[in-house]
Amino acid sequence: MSFDRVKEILENSLTAWEAANGGPPDLSGHGDTFKWSTKDELLAAVGKGKRLIQPELIGTPNADKANLLIDLRVGFGGRRMPDGGPFIPDAEIQEIEDWIRGGCVD
To answer: Residue 31 belongs to what domain range?
Structure first.
């Protein structure tokens, strides 16, 4: 598992959302650092005031507690992301979790 695969999963999710909803999502409310073009951007990304991947969870058995994974699986306040779906399949979310648990290697 590599960052390129994580990026592919996230990008495919945006593409599917755009196709289902007739255009790109408005991500401006997430903040200026809500990006994942590079691994460094993803590891520094903050969405709605929360770090997507908290540094202290990288390479640990607690990777499933990463805000990104919670948001993709159940959401905060009951709003799973991407908002309204289509949602990333559980197997692909697990790939992201495995990448975080494995130390976010390239």
So the answer is: 3-101
